[in-house]
């Protein structure tokens, strides 16, 4: 066991690589490429694309260090049986979940737009968690996977900061996982949500977790 320490807010984050997983949340075409679900909700997807280059570096370093890597995708069964009507009807998107869009049916498993972007393609050995909700633990096998691998800490990345990243970190925190959120590897469609969303993690002495820039994390990896 080798304990490493990353300079972070509100104080240094200590972790053991063999007990830490890198989690990439919802880096899907539907959220980060034009023509997907994110854009139909009225968002500028360009805001999320800046996460890609630093996250590529972190992913490569985590793989090289032998960390467990977990990818998640938000989406639904083709018959939408796992999509509550409340989620289906929420807001007034130009395209609803399940509707045919330019990248296939919006947020439906198996469709091109639902899949992860080519820049962060999972290796065949890496787990991809399909989740119907915003959180990565709700109605998934994530907790069982982490328990089976003896994981106690998560390095969390992906989109969007205030939605699926926040929900996942809050769920993880309640389950006893220590979370380090990499500030330049999480993205929001809204600049103010990015700023406030990041400060919410580490406020009150680290109420949900720790926040550091990817550079600080990369510096301590072997
Ligand atoms: N709309 C938005 O900001 N996010 C989502 O719907 N899902 C995720 O955050 N992945």
UniProtKB/TrEMBL annotation:
- Give the source's domain of life in one word: Bacteria
Q: What is the name of this protein? A: Cysteine hydrolase
Name the InterPro entries on file.
Answer: Isochorismatase-like_dom, Isochorismatase-like_hydrls, Isochorismatase-like_sf
Q: What is the lineage of its organism?
A: Bacteria, Bacillati, Actinomycetota, Actinomycetes, Streptosporangiales
> For the Isochorismatase-like domain, which residue ranges apply?
20-206
GO MF term list = hydrolase activity
Q: Which UniProt key words apply to this protein?
A: Hydrolase
